[in-house]
Amino acid sequence: MTAKRKRKKSHLLSHTRPPAASQTPSLSSQATRSLIRRHHTLQKQLHTAVATGDILAAESIRAQLAASGGLQKYQEASIQGQSAERGGDTSKVLMEWMNPMSLGGSSIGSIRSGKLRMLEVGALKIDNACSRSGIFEVTRIDLHSQHPDIQTKDFMEMPIPPKETLEKDGFDIVSLSLVVNYVGDAVERGDMLKRVSSFLRSYQETEKADKTSHPTLPALFLVLPAPCVMNSRYLDEERLEAIMTSLGYAKARRKLSKKLVYYLWGYEGVRARKGRDIVFKKQEIRPGGQKNNFTIVLQ
Question: Closest by alpha carbon to 182, among 121, 125, 243?
Answer without folding.
Answer: 121
